[in-house]
């Protein structure tokens, strides 16, 4: 697979089986995250690795968080999350160490975290693994964040479910990049994607 093939074939999946990346493999994958663009070299990304028996423990914390965030969270949703967080081969909590008073604006700090997460997803794919980035209300719960070791000024940016893709992986149709691209020659551009 050429590097371009690799980029053009990545797709998120939650159809994930064992094995998950070993510690050594994960370390290499996270080295790719350290290549993300990062204004001011703030290194705002944080990764909490959840494996093995820690998964059901996290699942219960997620359930408690869901109930904190929405006292009427439906039971089927709670059970689905409990199962996913208990059984995904590896979970990486994506943390952000944010500096609201820094001259680098918060949105740039958050983008650096997202760029690093994208590198993680690509590195997973490049090494034969797969994953998906998930969020939900719980990422806004400071109690859950603190339980993970991400108290303010940290916050949660979501979770990566990680493992080996299993079963037939569908290749989602991707949009034509031309719809999102326009050449500027002095007048404001218009994008095909914005036409109604
Ligand atoms: C910040 C962030 C949070 C996301 N949260 C969820 C989520 O909670 N549930 C979900 O199904 N997809 C979520 N997604 C989308 C998936 O990660 C994924 O991008 C989507 O399934 C499309 O797959 P693709 O990456 O192959 O295009 C999230 C994406 C981002 C960037």
TrEMBL record:
Binding positions for FMN? 10-12, 35, 39, 133-135
Q: Does the keyword Transcription regulation apply?
A: no
The UniProt keywords, alphabetically, are: Flavoprotein, FMN, NAD, NADP, Oxidoreductase
Q: Which domain of life is it from?
A: Bacteria
Xref: InterPro entries: NAD(P)H_nitroreductase, Nitroreductase, Nitroreductase-like, YdjA-like
Q: Which cofactor does it need?
A: FMN
- Which segments carry the region annotation Disordered? 167-187
Q: Name one GO molecular function term.
A: oxidoreductase activity
Q: What is this protein called?
A: Putative NAD(P)H nitroreductase
């Amino acid at each position: 697979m050429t590097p371009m093939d690799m980029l053009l074939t990545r797709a998120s999946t939650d159809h994930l089986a064992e094995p998950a990346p070993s510690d050594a493999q994960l370390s290499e994958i996270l080295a790719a995250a350290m290549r993300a663009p990062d204004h001011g070299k703030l290194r705002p990304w944080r990764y909490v690795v959840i494996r093995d028996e820690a998964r059901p423990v996290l699942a219960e914390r997620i359930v408690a968080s869901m109930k904190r965030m929405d006292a009427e969270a439906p039971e089927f949703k709670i059970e689905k999350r409990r199962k996913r967080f208990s059984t995904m081969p590896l979970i990486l909590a994506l943390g952000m160490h944010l500096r609201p008073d820094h001259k680098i604006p918060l949105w740039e700090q958050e983008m650096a975290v997202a760029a690093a997460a994208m590198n993680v997803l690509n590195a997973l794919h490049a090494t034969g693994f797969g994953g998906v980035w998930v969020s939900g209300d719980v990422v806004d719960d400071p109690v859950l964040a603190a339980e993970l070791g991400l108290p303010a000024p940290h916050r949660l940016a979501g979770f990566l479910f990680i493992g080996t893709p299993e079963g037939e992986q569908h290749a989602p149709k991707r949009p034509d990049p031309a719809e999102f691209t326009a050449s500027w020659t002095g007048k404001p551009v218009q994008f095909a994607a914005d036409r109604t």
